[in-house]
Amino acid sequence: MIRFEHVSCEYEKGQTVLNDLSFEIQDGESVGLIGANGAGKSTLMKVLLGLLPYSGRILVDDLEVNKANLKEIRRKMGFVLQNSDNQMFMPTVFEDIMFAPLNYGMTREEAEKRTEDTLNELGLSNLKHRHNHKISGGEKKMAAIATVLAMDPGTLLMDEPTSALDPYNRRIVINTINKLNKTKIIASHDLDMILDTCRRVILLSNGSIAADDGAENVLTDQILLEKNRMELPLSYSHMKKQ
Questions:
Q1: What's the distance, CA 172 to chain centroid?
Q2: d(CA 48, CA 60)
């Protein structure tokens, strides 16, 4: 379980990015984080990972997010970055996926098996020996997800997982997300993807929670979305016009 208790964050003194956030995410929930640019979505993920200082209290499985607990907390969470190029740094896909298991103390044999299993689970065996700079954006996004899943985290954080993907690869990523039996926190402007993958949505506005409800309730509320500088998901907009 993840719990935020009156959490605030300032980048600079007087510039509040998160403002007194309190909420809980239960084990196995899929939660979408939405909001206009600058609403605080990426910052929320960074404070959860201990990458930014904050006031208040954040608990992950009853462990407080602080310097003493960071190593254990980060083993519980995997973070898929928006830009896969910032996540893939080894020569081949196989080496990239194996990097985290090796650094978490697995033997090479164990790490290789974990990597093979992850590739097979995601249907990516064909990418095993491919060089990262020679695969497509969609393949790279899937490989980036694989590098995180190889750590076997209990919670998956994803920042704009479908950005810059064509419709085919976008659908593959959505199907992959839906198959994952993990707690998922997904930040995105792609509201149709959020509707497809999340049961619950937290809407952030100027660092505060403007709504926290079932995904369909939030994402079909045109007045609420427009008030917070957002539009209805395209799929729902088309249904309204019919």
A1: 16
A2: 9
Q: Which residues contact 196 (CB under 8 A, 6 or more apart)?
A: 174, 178
C-alpha distances (whole Å) from 137 to each of 46, 115, 173 are 24, 20, 12
Type of residue at 178: N
pLDDT at 242: 47
* CA-to-CA dists, residue 21 to 39, 57, 90, 173, 208, angstroms: 12, 10, 37, 29, 6
CB 146 within 8 A of CB 156: no
How do residues 12-41 score in pLDDT, each as one tens digit?
Answer: 777 889 999 999 999 999 999 999 998 999
Burial class (CB in 10 A: 0-12, 13-18, 19+), 95: middle
Query: Rounded to a whole number, what is the distance in angstroms from the first to the last CA of the chain?
Result: 41
Q: Domain 2-241 falls in which CATH fold?
A: Rossmann fold (3.40.50)
Predicted pLDDT of residue 81: 87
The per-residue pLDDT for range 114-169, each reduced to its tens digit, is 999 999 888 889 988 999 888 888 888 888 989 998 988 999 999 999 887 888 88
Q: Are 10 and 16 in contact (CB under 8 A)?
A: yes
Which three-class secondary structure state does DSSP give residue 51? Answer: coil
pTM value is: 0.90
SS3 (DSSP) at 72:
helix
- The Cα–Cα gap between 121 and 176 comes to 10
